[in-house]
């Protein structure tokens, strides 16, 4: 069972102290980590991406285009952060804000299956993926990962909990 902790909600996931503490258990200085949905709060990733051109990121691309870059496909990462919009409604709102009217309509996950597949392919053996959302799917055994840690972050009121899954590549 995942530990239940409380934290004030924050649109920028990594600004929650409980998240920062969990990340710092696995992230090490000098490692190569990627983040396809970095927002404004990821100081841990080496290569970052966010659709919003006003946020500090290495790239400002649709996540599906980001994972197609040679710098991603030709690297092996020590770890990844996977913190996409948590629902298809949030995906639609996020992408429509930047003029993207359609995203992979053949994939009910909004195209994020492809993102997870590339993350799996580019993670080193024993590498870590830390996934955030409203479910505990993460990378899954199907992609060669085992769940090793996580959190259920309660926010109180009528807010959904944030679920965090830490997985190691086998």
CATH homologous superfamily designation: Vaccinia Virus protein VP39
The end-to-end distance, rounded to whole angstroms, is 21 Å
CATH class: Alpha Beta
Tell me the count of domains.
1
Mean pLDDT: 88
What proportion strand?
25-35%
Helix/sheet category: alpha/beta
What can you see in these coordinates?
The chain is globular, with a radius of gyration of 15 Å. A hairpin with a 7-residue loop joins strand 6 and strand 7 (162-169). The longest helix has 11 residues, at 112-122. The two termini are 21 Å apart. It is of the alpha/beta class. The mean pLDDT is 88. It has a single domain, classed as Vaccinia Virus protein VP39 (Rossmann fold, 3-Layer(aba) Sandwich). It has helices at residues 17-26, 63-66, 70-73, 88-96, 112-122; strands spanning 4-6, 33-35, 47-48, 77-82, 123-133, 145-154, 162-169.
In terms of topology, how is this protein built?
Elements: E1 4-6, H1 17-26, E2 33-35, E3 47-48, H2 63-66, H3 70-73, E4 77-82, H4 88-96, H5 112-122, E5 123-133, E6 145-154, E7 162-169
Parallel strand pairs: 1-6, 2-3, 2-4, 4-5
Antiparallel strand pairs: 5-7, 6-7
């Amino acid at each position: 069972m995942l530990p239940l902790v409380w934290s004030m909600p924050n649109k920028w996931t990594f600004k929650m102290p409980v998240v920062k503490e969990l990340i710092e258990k696995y992230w090490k200085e000098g490692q190569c980590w990627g983040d396809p949905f970095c927002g404004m709060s990821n100081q841990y990733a080496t290569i970052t991406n966010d659709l919003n051109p006003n946020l500090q990121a290495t790239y400002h691309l649709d996540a599906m285009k980001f994972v197609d870059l040679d710098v991603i496909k030709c690297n092996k990462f020590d770890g990844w952060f996977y913190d996409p919009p948590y629902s298809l409604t949030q995906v639609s709102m996020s992408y429509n804000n930047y003029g993207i009217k359609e995203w992979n309509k053949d994939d009910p996950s909004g195209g994020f299956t492809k993102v997870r597949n590339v993350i799996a392919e580019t993670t080193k053996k024993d590498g870590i993926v830390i996934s955030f959302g409203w479910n505990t799917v993460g990378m899954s055994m199907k992609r060669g990962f085992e769940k090793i840690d996580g959190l259920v972050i309660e926010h109180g009121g009528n807010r959904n909990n944030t679920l965090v899954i830490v997985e190691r590549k086998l």
